Hints:
By secondary structure, the protein is of the alpha/beta class. The protein folds into 2 domains: 8-283, Spore Coat Polysaccharide Biosynthesis Protein SpsA, Chain A (Alpha-Beta Complex); 311-411, UDP N-Acetylglucosamine Acyltransferase, domain 1 (3 Solenoid). The protein is built from 11 helices and 31 strands. Strand 9 (177-181) and strand 10 (187-192) form a beta hairpin. The radius of gyration is 23 Å and the shape is globular.
Amino acid sequence: MASNSMTPRFVSRLTRDTLALILAGGRGSRLKELTRWRAKPSVHFGGKFRIVDFPLSNCVNSGIRSIGVLTQYKAHSLIKHIQQGWSFLRGEFGEFVEMLPAQQRISETAWYSGTADAIFQNLDILRSHEPSYVLVLAGDHVYKMDYGPMIALHVESGADMTVGCLEVDLEQAKEFGVMSVDANNKVIEFSEKPDSPAPIPGRDDVALASMGIYVFNSGFLYEQLIQDANKNDSSHDFGKDVIPSVIEQHKVMAYPFRDPQTGQQAYWRDVGTVDAFWKANLELIGVTPELNLYDSQWPIWTYQEQLPPAKFVFDDDGRRGMAVDSMVSGGCIISGATVRHSLLFSHVTVNDFAEVYDSVVLPDVVIGERCRIRKAVLDKGCSVPPGMVIGEDPEEDAKRFYVSEKGVVLVTPDMLGQDRHHVQ
C-alpha cells in the first residue's frame, strides 16, 4: 500500500464517502424463544445493549455516519430501539440512521428473499445517497472493529469487492463460508461450509472465514445486484451466489480482521445459540474480558432508560444483599439475596433469600423469595414465583423450559404461564 494510504485524512475521506447497510432482518431461530417476539439483532446483550448496537457503534466510531438498517422479521422492538437511541445524528450534516423495512418496493408480494435481494430492493434509495463505497454488515454479531482500514485497503488494492474475514481453525471453518486466497490475500475461490476447508498460505491450521462484512465500489455493487436479481436459479444471497459469481472475473480481496494492538485474531462472537449467548454474556464479567465495554476510546452507544443506581439492601447473616463476580445494571434491587457470577440487565429485582448463580437475567425480571437459579437465561419480563428452583434438575427443567445442549436453561414469560408476548 502507498505510504500515505493509512493517514487519518485519507481514511476519513473514504469513510465520509461510504454508506453502511446493516442487515438486521434475521429470524435467529437457533436462539429459540429469545427471538419469538423480536429479531436477533434486537436481542439484549452485555447488561444494557442490544446486539445491533455493536455494528452501529462501529460505524459511528469509524467515521461512517450514513447508515441504513434493513429490517424484516418482527422488527418492532428493533425499530423502537433505534428511534430512541440513534436519533442523535444530524441530518443537515448528511448523518443519518435510516430504517429500511421490507416494504414491497419491487412487487406486491416481494419480501426480502436473501441478503443480496434485501439490498437490491432498496437500490433506488442507495443511488439517491450517491455513495462511492457501500459497506454491508451483518446486524447480529458482537465485536468492535474500525472499518476505516478495511475500506482503505479496498481502495488501495483496486478491488471491486473486499470481504472481512476471521482466521479460524479448520474444524470451526466447516461452519462458515471459506475464502481461498493467494499470498496477497486475493480471493481465488469461495466455498460455503466446506467439508475440507482450505488453509491460508503458509499455515496449515487455520482458514479464512467470511464475517459477512463486505466493501463494494458502489457502481460494481449495483451491477452485480441487478444481474443476480435476473437469475431464476439464484437464492439471492451474497455468500451463496454473489461472491462465487464474481471471483473469476473481478478482483475480490480478503481482509483478515486482527486486533490492531496485538496483531492476533480480534474478538468476534456469533451469539446465535442459547449456549453461545449465555457464554458470551458471562465472559464480560471476567477480570480482563476480551471485549472491553469500559473502553472510552471505542464506546458502545445505545438507548437506556434513565434509572436509579443499583441497590443492595440488608446485611443480616443469611439475608445479605450482595453480588460477587457479577455485573449489575441500573435500576436493580438485590434485597437480601445472593448473586454470584451473573449478569443482570436493567430493572431486575431479586428478593429475600433468593440465590442466582451463573445466570444472565434480562431487563424487568422479578425473582421471588427463596428462588434458586443456576446456569439460566431469564428473558425480559419474567416473574419467577417464590421458591422456584431452576437449573438443578435437568429433567424437571425440560418439562417447563428449554434446556440447551450444554445445560443452559432458557426461561421466558410464556413458559411461566405469563402472557407477556408484548414484551420485547
